[in-house]
Amino acid sequence: MVYSGVLSKGCERCRRRKTKCDQRKPGCSQCERAKTPCPGYRDLLNVMFRDDTAAVIRRVEAEHGEQILSRNFGAQRPLPPSSSSNQTSRTVAGSHSPDFNQTYHPWLISPSTQPARSLSSPIQDQAASFFFANYVLSDPPFSHTYLRWLSRLYSQEPSGGIVRSVVESVGLAGMANVYDASDLKIEAKRQYGYALARTNKALKDPIEVKADSTIVAILALGLFEVINFEDWKHYHPWKSHIEGGAAVLQLRGPEQFERELGSFLFVQLRVQLYNGCFQTNTPVPHSIRKWLKQPPATQNHDEVRYEQDGLATIAAKIIDLRVAIAHGHVKDITAIVSKALEIDKDFDKLIALFSSQYTYDTVTVASGPSNECFDSYYHVYNYLWVAQTWNSYRIIHLLLHEIILNQWEGYSSQYLSDKQDPLIVQFNHSRSLTIQRCSEICASVPYFLGCFPGQRVSSPKLTQRSLGGLMLLYPLFGGVCRSKYVDERMRRWAAGRLKYIDSSMGIRQAGLMAATLTKEISI
Question: Zn(2)-C6 fungal-type domain: from which residue to which, for each copy (predicted)?
Fold first, then answer.
């Protein structure tokens, strides 16, 4: 069973003509204006997956021969080593360790390792296919390792296992939202309840709590909440997943960094945890802070070392300053600005590192701004992970300068007209930098969503667009839209992109963010 990508919901005539269909029932208005009977709409659930088994068998037979197939249908040739990207940008701004020597996929598995499935219930297989296609990073640096491990674990785990339950619940939730299928939504919530109970059981087991599969379950349960996040009251259960994850990381100890997979899972959970800390002015847990300088398991993965020793350390300092201000431990304006500028020096070191390691192209759009592109240019990156790293840098940097700008309102009015006053000079600089970082985030959006107006450039795989949408939530909402220093046009555009992420990818938290921002702008 192979996922065929996001399918058009339009009628057959509009799809054939490649025109936008308004999907009105019983027939669309485009066909009505053309005085042509509307052919109606197809059932997407029947066509969004295709049976590719025969083609896979032929391909594996050609590569390995019938003997290998008869012995183990799941064995594939190893992945070739991933080559490092040397792309020169036109504009540069910038538990047991599994065997990773084989590639495993849930759809190419040994009969001995896969429980028999009833032919009357293929929806679990479809949900898993949807999950792997949309929510699992397939870019370097750790993606091949993680994808191989997770897909193999899913295929070998018995029915009702912790990874199977969370993968299928998230996949069902995504399918239900994208295809507006109420029956799938009911099944997704039922499966989620089981996955949650299974995870809680694992957390109480002294051995299972340290397993990689438990971390995966915590991450996936958090993802389920984001996909179904339709009311701000749902923020608290999402936050509880992250808090539980921090406790698990503490129990796993330094041994988790001895393996690539352990380092990868630590970084992924830490990203979610930091988002929660920023949104709630909560200190970074000691279990995370004490491992900021922990070296990665494989020295070739420089990206992880940069992130751990760079962005994560800086972010922890910013969170500390925000918490100190919120609790009244630092009140003097000059002292706050001084502490912020000390942290800002770390960004100067980091930007030089990023500019040499993480290059990207800037593409000019002759047609100018549009729904897809905020300005007359956008960025193209080598990998989604690189784009996410740049946006992490941007939003952390602008959050630091927001601290400085927040002191502007409390600064004595008698100095505001003095353009030579050091603080006034700094306020103006911070305002310009904040707008610049927000503009850069907007320029990254077409790449994350796979929309490249006016150009034919290589894009993320279509099936990775949902993952790109997830990566944009906090940069757009917590960065661009919440900034008091960008104009209304930028905020409305960012809110529109969040609405698009909701409607086209089924990520409900994006829709809630867009609705909240639209209401604020209207007020």
Answer: 10-38
